[in-house]
Each structure stands twice: as structure tokens, then as C-alpha cells.
Amino acid sequence: MNLEEQPRLFESERDSPATSATPFRPLADRMRPRTLDEFQGQAHLLAPGRPLQKALEAGRVHSMILWGPPGSGKTTLARLAASYVKARFFSLSAVLAGVADIRSVVNEAQRHRAATGDECVLFVDEVHRFNKIRQDAFLPHVEDGTLILIGATTENPSFELNNALLSRARVYVLKALESEVIERLIERALQDVERGLGVMRIRLESGLGAILARAADGDVRRALNLLEIAADILPDPENEGDERILTRQALLPVLEGGAVRRFDKGGDAFFDQISALHKSIRGSSPDGALYWLARMIDGGCDPAYIARRLVRIASEDIGNADPRALSLALDAWEVQERLGSPEGELALAQSAVYMAAVPKSDAVYRAFDEAMHDARQSGSLDVPMHLRNAPTRLMASLGHGAGYRHAHDEAEGYAAGERYLPDALSKRHYYQPSGRGLEERIRARLARLRALDEEHGEGRPPPRRGLDDSLRSPRAASEPSPIGDPAEVSTDSSPLQADDRHERELR
Questions:
Q1: What stretches in the chain show pLDDT beneath 50?
Q2: Edge-to-edge strand order for the sheet containing 120-125?
Q3: Strand, coil or helix: what is 275?
Q4: Which of 199, 272, 386, 432 has an alpha carbon 20 to 30 Å from 310's alpha carbon atom?
Q5: 249-258 contacts: CB < 8 A, separation 24 or more?
């Protein structure tokens, strides 16, 4: 059972850097703050006068969920809370613990409270990894006060924890530590003789602390681990008692491959960054689109996922304002699949920049959403008889297809007044083109067709074309179509063949 019982936060022998009776402990663990005064960062929670700070100083603690990135101080804060309330401290890892482990902690906590009356704090690391059954196992014991639960998680509690547990615990959000805070903690570790590296007399070359802090990317544990590795490989000084200088040349091999930005595939960082990419394109910011695309690729995101999202953006946010965006997104996806990195990533960048720069419209997205809503809510409405298929003589005799007007045989190639929706939805107009990009001309075209509907009346056929010149469309042959010539509105997938009108819109 992965169970740690710790009556006091730090035993005196655990504070010594190393003894023959004490197993090795990493520098990051040895340097954990022992008091709130030593705790760095998270001022929004622990600055003087803040509710959590006042509660801890007063010796009162409540069940809480600490949500934040790795190395932001979740475990340390939990241990400090138990220390300030003078409670017995239990610790479980949700990765390894099961229901039997939870029961064992509960039984021990019940015995301890009955014997001493002291509070019992249970710290659960990675609490989001507990399934619903294990989360439910805590509820009655948190409810009756047997346990004060402190859970730590890097994932969004609203998605990973059940509502019953969330209603019994306060959620505190911890932030990634600023570089300046990490620099101070690095300097403290170098100077601390009792728990840190002070006895080694290490001095950092100028500017090296800032480099190390940036490489840690908000994670003080990573910073101290890198510092400890670099210290271990430093050669001994020529004279005993001399300083050891940690140079840039000595540190860079330690940092190689270790400076990875925060990006948890399937976690909050993943969804926040893909959201930022999507919204940058929607907001017509090529710079924002490039940055978030680079962040995701740098963090290890599957380029195929980004390619799929770009295709979605092309339909959802650009739509018919520039149909070429969809072709370009599909081309970029194909380049990624055929060539891989880095050529494929450049194609993705080209697609993202193009979509950020061109006119936007979500008219198709909204129209489809409304049509889907009606399809789900209106029941199984019958297909109008004139639109039904009639492949057999029997079906034709039943009226299937009767009265259907073939649009190509009508004036202007349009059956004015014809109905294509079920009777219950006959007045619906889902697609409302915007006035941007190509949709400006699409809107004019549809307005013309609706004017013809009103002119001829619903269901009343206009004259058919080809019968007599006098019955042809009143629009002169020389009059341009509202939607433009076919060559003018070509949706050629190559952005280099854009028409003059489109180039003017981009300027």
C-alpha cells in the first residue's frame, strides 16, 4: 500500500542534507518550504490577508482541491496545511492506491481521532486519476469530518472529479511560477548549507540563473532537478575551499532536451492551445495563429490533429466567404501526410496564415446547426410528393414526382416558386449569407432568386425556357450574373490563382 503517515511535517533528521541513516532525497524535496514565509509564489492565494493564508495561520483547514501545473507547489501547500493545523498527515497516490488503501486510511484516521481528538488530513496526489467509485469512497468520511481531503491535480477538476466531491471541497487554482520566483529559489538552494547545495560553494555564471529559470517553464521542481544534475557533474576545485563556477558551457548539455514547454496531450494545456489557435484564425490574426501553431508543434502535438482542426476551421469560420480555404487546408493535410516534418508543418502554417487573412463567414455553420435542430425536433416529416422518387410504375401512379419542375428547363435555370422543404417548414430560410468575400455575390444571387419567387408566386410555374424568344428571361444576355462568371468564382485550390476581386479584398 502506497501510504505515508507523517505526524509532523518535517522530522528533524529529514532536514539534514544527508546522513548514513537517511536515504537520498532529491534537492527539490529537501528544499520544500517549511513555513508560509518560505513559500514563494501563489500570492493570489497566500499573500497576507488572503482567505487561505488567514485560515492556515489561524490553524483552520478545510477540504480543498489544488489545481495547477507541475512544480507549482501543490504538494508543499498540502503539507503546510497539515502542519499549521497540527493534524496527522496521510498521503496516497491515486496512480497506485485502490479502495482497500482508502479504507485503511479511513480506519487509521478513525482510531487516531478517537484516541487523540486531532484532525486527520489525507493528501491525494493526482486525484483526477481516481475513478468515480474511488471518489465516492471519500464522500461519507469527508462529510462526517473523519478526513480533511486535500487533492492535487494538473487536470480541470470540473471534468475529472464528480460533482458530489467538488461540492464538499474548495478548488484553489495555482499558477505556473514566474521566472523571477524560480531564480530566487535557485539562489536559495545554492546558499542553503543545511538542505541545499551551500556546502558545495557553487556560483552561477552571470545570467545563468535566468536561463535555468526559463528552461524550467514555471516548474520549480524541474529547475532544482536540472541544477542538481549540473552540480553533480561539476569538477572539484583545484584548491579546497575555492568556489565552483557553473558556466553556460557546463549547463547547456544538461538543458538539452529538457526545456520542453507545457503541453499535455489530451489535458487542459492541449485544449487551451488549440482553442487559442482556432480563435486567432477566427479573429484574423496571422501572428497569433503562427505562434499557437508553433507552440503545439514544439510541445509534441500530432500534426494530423492540427490538420483536421484546420479543415474544420475552413468550413466553420471561413465557409463560402472564401471556399479556397477548405481546399488549401486539405492540401496542407496531404502534404503533412506525404512529406512529414518539417515540410508538412510549413504547409500547415501556410494554411493557417491564409485562413487568418481572408474574409470570414460562419453562415453555413449556423445554417447547418439550425437545420440539424429542426431535423431532430420536428419528427419524421414526409418528403413532399413532387420531390419523391418514382422508379416504378406503381410509385408514379401513386403521385410520386408528380408536378416536379426540372430547374434546367426553367427560365434562368430556376424553378421560381417551387418548394423544397416539408410543408411544416416551408417558410424557413436557414442560409443567410454574410456580406463578406464571395458570399457578397452569393447573397445577391439568392436575393434575385427570392425576388423571382415573389414575382411568380409560390407553386405557380413561370414560362419555361426554349419555347419562344419572348418567353426567355427578361435579363439581357449581356447583363452579368449576380454571382459572377464561372471563371471569376473559380474555387481552384491554388491560392496563387486568386482572381483580382479576391486580391483587392485581401488588401
A1: 1-21, 459-460, 462-507
A2: 4-6, 88-93, 120-125, 148-153, 64-67, 170-173
A3: helix
A4: 432
A5: 251/208, 251/211, 251/212, 251/226, 254/226, 254/229, 254/230, 255/211, 255/212, 255/215, 255/226, 258/215, 258/222, 258/226
For the chain, the structural domain boundaries read 4-173, 179-255, 268-357
Parallel/antiparallel/unpaired status of strands 4-6 and 88-93:
antiparallel
Which cell numbers hold the place of 199? Answer: 556546502
Give the predicted TM-score (pTM) of the model.
0.60
CATH architecture for residues 268-357: Up-down Bundle (1.20)
For 47, 48, 172, the CA distances from 51, given in Å and listed in that order, are: 9, 9, 11
What does the block give as the cell for 480? 452579368
Torsions phi, psi for 92 (to 5 deg): -130, 150
High-pLDDT (> 90) share of the chain, %: 45
190: which 3 cell numbers?
Answer: 545554492
Residue among 205, 188, 206, 196 nearest 244 (CA): 205
Residue 467: burial class (beta carbons within 10 Å; 0-12, 13-18, 19+): exposed
31 in Cβ contact with 224 (< 8 Å): yes
Cell numbers for 222: 524541474
Instruction: List for the chain the helix, strand, coil content (%; round to 5).
Output: 50, 5, 40
DSSP conformational letter for 410:
B
CATH architecture of 179-255: Orthogonal Bundle (1.10)
User: By the 8 A CB rule, do 445 and 481 touch?
Assistant: yes
Domain 4-173: give its CATH code: 3.40.50.300
CB-neighbour burial class of residue 236 (10 A; exposed 0-12, middle 13-18, buried 19+):
exposed
Rg over CA atoms, the chain:
34
CA atoms within 13 A on the CB side of 30: 27
The grid cell for 434 is 454574410
Element (H, E) at 120: strand 120-125
